[in-house]
Amino acid sequence: ARARKKQQKQLSRKHTLVLVGSIICLLLIFALISTALLNHNGEASAQQQAQQSETQLNSQLQQARALGVPASYLQLVLTQEQQLVHAQPVFAPVNPFATGYYTRAAQQYRALQQQIPGIIATATSALQTQAQQNMQAFQTAISKWDAHGVGNSRYFSQQFSQDQLALSSAHYPRDYSAISQNAQQSISALQAMGIVYSQLNDLKTTISRMGMAHIDVTALQSQYANDLQAFNSATSTTTFQNLGSQIDAQYEQAVVASIQAFPYVGVTKLNELQQQISCSRQITPTILPTMQYTRPMSKCSITIIFRENRC
């Protein structure tokens, strides 16, 4: 009987210990679940704040682009934003580091947001200065042609007045960028106009020399008149470049016409003509192109080799 009682007491103790252990385990599990839920709620809240801050940053970046801020000014902010995106924690049911990451990310996104107004102001100031410098260069280029009174200088003067008016009312980076672009295009066109103007003068001189040598220049004079008309109406760099190429081809045609007329003007006259053209066009000897003419009724061949060489 005593042994039974002792055995029953031992079993009772074991049951009690098991019960207590079970209760403790349940309490621990409950505590862990509660902690996990709290951490999850905290992580979710921090993640939401980070996402909101990122969205606000992207909205400000979009506004800056819409104002015309060049990408180079925004590159540093974009790089830092990408670093934050790539540093996101790995997804896991319980991640004790996630909340800290999202909290820091939200702070950094807000810090990047604060940089945007300063970037816009810096870009605006720099582009304004650049536009003013380009307009000064534009004005200088126009003044040179106004003194000559040739070409379509009136068009460029009107363009300058329009750009000057736009500069006085500009406020945003895109405004100053557009003004700079217009001024640079006009300056480029004026430079091309100067080259073509020189080509036209050279062609006119060449035609005059050919006429003095009694060579028929009727076709060349007609081409020159058409070239002059196109020159006076041209306003773009591309138009001037195309016209310049056309004048070069006409000059080559004048050279060929001179050589073809060789039997009629005589060796002395042609040599004189070549010397005159050399003075006006700065022709120097070269190996291309080669024009060869063999005098009729003669066994001797005379080769004339020359090509234009502009400075």
What can you tell me about this protein's structure?
The chain is mainly α. The chain has 8 helices and 4 strands, in the order ααααααααββββ. A two-stranded antiparallel ribbon has the order 1-4. Strands 2-3 form a two-stranded antiparallel ribbon. β2 and β3 form a beta hairpin. α1 packs parallel to α3, α2 runs antiparallel to α3 and α5 runs antiparallel to α6. The longest helix is centred in the N-terminal third of the chain and has 65 residues. It is rod-shaped, with a radius of gyration of 43 Å. The C terminus is likely disordered.
Kindly summarize this structure in a few lines.
With 311 residues, this protein is mostly helical. The protein is built from eight helices and four strands. The protein has helices spanning 2-66, 71-86, 98-148, 153-168, 173-212, 218-233, 237-260, 262-281; strands spanning 283-284, 290-294, 301-305, 307-308.
Structure classification: mainly alpha
Read across the widest sheet, the strand sequence of neighbours is: 1-4
Q: Approximately how much helix is present in the residues?
A: over 70%
Q: How much β-strand is present in the residues?
A: under 5%
Series of H and E elements: HHHHHHHHEEEE
Q: What Rg do the Cα atoms give?
A: 43 Å
Distance linking N and C termini? 131 Å
